[in-house]
Each structure stands twice: as C-alpha cells, then as structure tokens.
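Entry type: protein chain
Record version: 2
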Amino acid sequence: MLWSYHQKKHIEAGCDEAGRGCYAGPVFAAAVILRKDFFHPLLNDSKQVSEIHRYELRPIIEKEAVSYGVAMVCNEEIDRINILKASFKAMHLALDTLKKKPKYLLIDGNRFTPYNDVKHKCIIKGDGLYSSIAAASILAKTYRDDYMKKLHEEYPLYNWHNNKGYGTEEHRTAIEAYGLTKYHRLSWKLNQQQLSLDFEEEGILM
C-alpha cells in the first residue's frame, strides 16, 4: 500500500518522468499534489499498472488532485544537454505549471537539480512507495504515450504506437532498415553496433 505523504507540515508534490531510456521522442514529466487522504486501489508505479488501468486512473488523478502539471523536453534538447538534465528540466517545467505551489517535493530517483528554494527528497523507486509520485508517473506515462501515438502517424514504419520509442527489437530493426528520423535521439549513437546491445533502462513496459 502506498504512503499518502512523507511529511505533514508542508504541501507536498510528487514528481516523476517517463521516456528517459527511449531511442526516440521527448521525455515527459509530471508533478502532482494530492490530498493527504487520497486513495485509489489501482494507483501504483505506472510500470506496475496495465495500460487500461493507467488511462482509467488519469482522469481520476486530474479531477481529484489539488494541482497537477505535465511537461516535456524534446529530443533535440535531450541531445543538447543530456537525458538526465532534460529529465530534471521537464520536472521543473511541470512544477512551473502548478496552480498551488508546493513547499516540499518528493522526487522519484536518486538525484535532482533543486527547484528554486523548495526542499526536496529523492526516493529510489518512490513511484511504488508514495501516492503523489505514483500519480505523477501515471500522468507522465500516459501523456507521453499519447504523444508517441501521434508521432507514429507521421512515421508509421517504426511502430511507435506500440513500442513508444523504446529500444524494442522491432524498433531496432526498423532503424537498421529505414535509418533515423528527426525524432530520434542522435546522442544515443544508434548505429548498428549499438543496436545489437541490450538497452537497459527502467524496463520496457508498453
């Protein structure tokens, strides 16, 4: 069962990203402030929730959240500043959109660039521990999936509506056959040797 909050004194926002290890497309991030009594039995780390349930949860989170924000950083910016900095930037942009400003942040992962003067705590696998981070993971994942489905319409040969830009076998095969698009992350060095390696990220769950 997820914890509702880390501390009671301040308004808390959970932050998470989606798409950090993809070959193509942007990285998305979300920030969510939930009521301290919020509960939903399906809420969990987005990687542990089926696609059907993720989309069932999204409107519930958006309706019940005190405030939420979603933002993205494109693949060109990822190539320019690196994926770690791009992930933090996406979180900052998501936080910028919150109508209610938090005084404390729960960040999924072990590193973060401080956001203004707001205190934060990094929590490894926090999306499976705290409701606000889990909610952020659901929003970031579903918004990014929707974005990749739109990109699929432009480049259907890469099957992004299924693999969402991750380094699946079908995606690697398509890159070998058709080359790279303007949405691929060039800094990933997606040459034939690289594509023969297993790409290890947070797991490829579509």
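Comment: The chain has seven helices and five strands.
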